[in-house]
């Protein structure tokens, strides 16, 4: 064999080995069955509070799945999306828009369950205002400062912003806005008069008032949105099929009210990616390029 033939054979052999190694890694990735599952909760309130309140969930999942469970609360929606993208978490409770953004970056992830509240797999956003700030209607927001949550939030950004747009108020043209992070930060900022109006989840707002975090007499609801598909549970598509079935069943069969309280839900129903097309359509109405939304 001459030198050229030898090199060709060697390169072909190396390519074959590389192909075999890639195929092996791919096969292993599609049957991942880790001893520990990292389960991320949506960072829409204080992280330590979320972790503490979710301890019954940890115990339940460890019993059902026979695996160690690590509860995770990332610093914001963006870091949660990136953690899912790069396989640093296996299961996550996403907001609808943050799920859509995550799906763009990690097409293999799979939504499998959606929270059900008041018998429906939907929820609403509200636009609130400080009661004595002279903002009595959506029209009064013109020229004011509005507080939104995370840029990747559905009910604390995308939907309230669309609601204002449908009422003729376009952000940065008709009013100024600022992103404040979590839903509770928006409510606090409105109550304190730091912003004159704000958008957040109706259920989170009601919970903040019920806990006394927000004084219901000092903050008024100006409008509520149409129904939004509820928060999905999402898992890595590379998990072993048997594990995915077990995770899916654990959530769809979850009945304990103490655990479901973590999700502000009465239970879970099955879902898929198509249920969230409405978020993609809403972004188009706002001329919002989702690829440029921080997340």
TrEMBL record:
Secretion signal span: 1-23
Keyword Glycoprotein: no
Keywords for the protein's UniProt record, in alphabetical order: Signal
Pfam assignment, any one: Phosphonate-bd
PROSITE patterns, A to Z: TAT (PS51318)
InterPro entries, per the entry: PhnD (IPR005770), TAT_signal (IPR006311)
The organism's place on the tree of life at top rank: Bacteria
PANTHER family: PHOSPHONATES-BINDING PERIPLASMIC PROTEIN
UniProt cross-references to NCBIfam families, sorted A to Z: 3A0109s03R
Family, similarity comment: Belongs to the phosphate/phosphite/phosphonate binding protein family.
Protein name: Phosphate/phosphite/phosphonate ABC transporter substrate-binding protein
């Amino acid at each position: 064999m001459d030198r050229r033939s030898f090199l060709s054979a060697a390169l072909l052999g190396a390519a074959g080995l590389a192909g075999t190694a890639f195929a092996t890694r791919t096969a292993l990735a599609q049957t991942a069955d880790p001893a520990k599952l990292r389960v991320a909760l949506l960072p829409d309130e204080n992280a330590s509070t979320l972790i503490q309140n979710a301890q019954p969930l940890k115990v339940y999942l460890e019993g059902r799945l026979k695996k160690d469970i690590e509860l995770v609360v990332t610093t914001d929606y963006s870091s949660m999306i990136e953690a899912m993208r790069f396989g640093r978490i296996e299961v996550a409770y996403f907001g609808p828009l943050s799920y859509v953004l995550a799906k763009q970056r990690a097409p293999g992830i799979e939504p499998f369950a959606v929270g059900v509240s008041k018998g429906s797999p939907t929820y609403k956003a509200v636009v609130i205002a400080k009661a004595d700030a002279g903002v009595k209607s959506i029209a009064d927001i013109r020229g004011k400062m509005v507080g939104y949550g995370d840029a990747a939030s559905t009910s604390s950004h995308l939907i309230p912003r669309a609601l204002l747009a449908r009422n003729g108020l376009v952000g940065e043209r008709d009013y100024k806005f600022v992103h404040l992070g979590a839903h509770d930060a928006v409510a606090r900022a409105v109550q304190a008069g730091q912003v004159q109006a704000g958008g957040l989840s109706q259920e989170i707002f009601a919970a903040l008032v019920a806990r006394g975090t927000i004084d219901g007499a000092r903050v008024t609801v100006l409008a509520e949105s149409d129904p939004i598909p509820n928060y999905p549970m999402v898992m890595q598509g590379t998990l072993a099929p048997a594990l995915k079935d077990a995770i899916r069943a654990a959530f769809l069969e979850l009945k304990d009210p103490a655990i479901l309280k973590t999700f502000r839900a009465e239970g879970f129903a099955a879902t898929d990616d198509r249920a969230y097309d409405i978020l993609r359509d809403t972004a188009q109405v706002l001329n919002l390029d989702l690829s440029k939304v921080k997340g």
